[in-house]
Amino acid sequence: MLQDLKTFLFKDSLVDVAVAFILAAAFGAVVKSLVENVIMPLIAALVGKPSFDDIVWKLDDTPIQIGMFLTTFVNFLIIGTVLFFVVRAITRVMSVRKTETVDEKVVSDEVVLLTEIRDALARPRP
Asked: Which candidate, 42, 44, 36, 46, places its Cα nearest to that of 75?
C-alpha cells in the first residue's frame, strides 16, 4: 500500500500538475497586481474613480450593487486579455521549437541516407 502511495505521489503527471498549479497561483497574483495597481489606477485617471463599486441602483429600497459587478467584470476582461496574450506567445514559441526539431530530424535523416550511399559506393565490388 505504501508503495502504491509512493508511486501515485511521484508520478510525472501528478508532479507536473502540482507545478502548474503553483505557477498558476503565482501568475494569478502577478495579474491581480497588474489589474489593481496599474490598470485600475489608469481607469481612475480617465473616469475619476479607481473602481465602480460605488455605483448602486435602488429597487424598492433594495440596493443592487451593479458597480461591484462592473468592477469584477472589468477585472475579468483584463485578466482574460493578459492570459490570451501569454498563451499566444507560449504557443508561438512552442511551434517554433517544434519546427526546429522537425528540421533537425529531416537533416538528420538526410545525413543518414547520404552516409549509407557513400558507404555503399565505397565498398569494393565483387
From this structure: 36
